[in-house]
Fold ABC transporter ATP-binding protein.
Amino acid sequence: MLRINNMTTGYGMADVLHGFDMELNKGEIIAVVGANGAGKSTLMRAISGLLPLKSGSIKFNGKDISKVSAHTRVDQGLVQVPEGRQVFGPLSVVENLTLGFFSKRKQGKTQLQKRLEYAYHLFPKLAERKGQKAGSLSGGEQQMLVIARALMSDPSLLLLDEPSLGLSPLITEQIFEVLVELNKNGLSILLVEQNAFETLSISDRGYLIENGNMVLNGDSKQLLNNPKVTEVYLGNE
Ligand code: ATP
């Protein structure tokens, strides 16, 4: 579904990712783990189209999307939940969700209603707070809202950048449970995290990045037992 081939990208003269390869098959949850500054967010920006490639390619459903704009990628079903809970604070929960439906607005009100109901089913907290200003939600609720907003356009591949950042273990667990449910319903997921153990526990396969290089990849269960992964985890404690 997603294939990254020999990709180099970065900022200005500085390359962050060097000759990076990665693959995600339809229906998988893929984990990308690595320490602070390893290049995880850079990878996400390149996939979602916010950062141009210097070389290499990204293919989505067999088509080269390396030069396709970010909003066209969203239309094609590739949607990123940005790092750091970017909600529209003065707007209500339902207004935030409705904005996530913008690219699908031609589908009309009935479809909008269906997507809203699905969001509320996944995150009942959001249903309780649908009229509340997004800026007044707790950190965990804001994270739920940005995920739910991304789902409003009915993506086929969801990219998540550190959804657990700053959240309690309990809220993180709730959010990860929803990701597993979404995956069972057919959504493919690319999950970038410093939180290596939890992430590898819910994913099928994983990649470990160090200083912009992919140093390990494989079955998540095997990676969980790899000392290099433990090192990254302990380095973040
Ligand atoms: P974190 O979890 O801290 O966000 P990360 O693995 O996501 O870490 P990146 O944010 O991708 O890492 O950063 C990788 C490298 O790119 C770092 O050295 C960082 O300083 C650099 N970098 C990130 N964003 C920019 C930018 N806008 N301009 C220049 N350099 C950047």
